């Protein structure tokens, strides 16, 4: 390893958060859940289409009601003809950091069952399961994967040709890790893994807590 490579590695490793400082699980679980987080700092480097397809492949195997698989993923890669259309859907605040993403993804869910055409009540729930699979795969690969709702849903539906049978759910930015100090100051101050509510705040035996 050259001196330059050693320096760059040191700078990168110095910016990797110590998860135990921010997250302490109350029960013994796999570290894959603790280590996944949603930074915003990305380098602006491209990723290969094969890398992106690996994320979608992980999402493909998520569970769903009646195995309906309602998730759909619309995407644009950096430096392609589709990029500006997807980037233009974002809020100004999200554009300030997504400008360094390698890919932008819009998640969509199908609201009806394929086998009978009736409403699928869990279409959003099931698409969320696919999103988690995609996010975990990205974490395994050392990529930044950040989901958001800060974009124009109506324009996304129209400009991305989403039919009334489908619902626009969220947007995802994917990229290679970057330097948090390149973020706008307000976002740089938030660039650390978030904690979670205690189990007693979200889990209730026998019914909802009064």
Bin the strand percentage. Answer: 5-15%
How is the CATH topology of the domain at 45-190 named?
Answer: NADH Oxidase
Basic shape:
globular
Strand order of the largest sheet: 1-2-4-3
**Total number of strands:** 4
Helix tally equals: 9
Indicate the CATH architecture of the domain at 45-190: 3-Layer(aba) Sandwich
Secondary structure class reads alpha+beta
Query: Sheet bearing the most strands, described?
Result: 4 strands, antiparallel
State the separation between the terminal residues, measured CA to CA.
Answer: 60 Å
**What is the radius of gyration?**
19 Å
Helix content: 25-40%
Level-1 CATH class name of the domain at 45-190: Alpha Beta
Reading the helices and strands in chain order gives: HHHHEHHEHEHEH
CATH homologous superfamily of the domain at 45-190, by name?
A: NADH Oxidase
Mean pLDDT: 92
* Low-pLDDT residue spans: 4-14
